[in-house]
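Today's session is about reading a structure prediction critically. Students often jump straight to the picture, but the first step is always the sequence itself: look for stretches that repeat, for charged clusters, for runs of hydrophobic residues. Only then move on to the predicted structure, which in these notes is written as discrete structure tokens rather than atom positions. Here is the chain we will use throughout the hour.
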Amino acid sequence: MSYRIRVCVKEVKGKCAMGYRPGNCFIIERFYIKDTGKGVCLHALALMLTLLSPFLKGISANVLGIGAEDDIGYIQCPDPGEPYTYGGTVVFELKRIPV
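Below is the predicted structure for this chain, in token form.
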């Protein structure tokens, strides 16, 4: 079975340097990032990369340790925010959708 992943901003703590707001989304399908709208933050993408391939290939979010359900997982960007940086951290929801 093939999947795509819908990555959406679930929560922003502080101020995201990329300007992400809750509800901003993009799609990952096969080896492509689609429908970005705002673009993709390289720091957040780097954090997701090791999990995206197995998640796209059918390994559950639960087994990967990123969620309690099979098809929905969560990743947090590495920016700690105030008082350490001028930015803030973003929580992303990764939802796997059969194609």
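Discussion point for the tutorial: Residues 37 and 67 are 26 Å apart (CA to CA).
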